[in-house]
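Appendix B. Raw example, untouched.
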Amino acid sequence: MKQQTLAGFERYETTPRRGQFLAQMVQIVPWAGLVAVVEPVYPKVGQSGGRRPIPLERMLRVYFLQL
């Protein structure tokens, strides 16, 4: 007996609310421009080393999600 596949059920798949929200946020927020504005003043690793800061784009996305 052949195993049945789930082909054809893709049309019933829905995007979760979180996915919809993130897709809207990508469309609304001009990420490239925002990163270009903030990057000059965002902390960087100095000559003496130290802990690396969180990547700028990730930090901005977390900040906007909190708002």
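End of appendix B.
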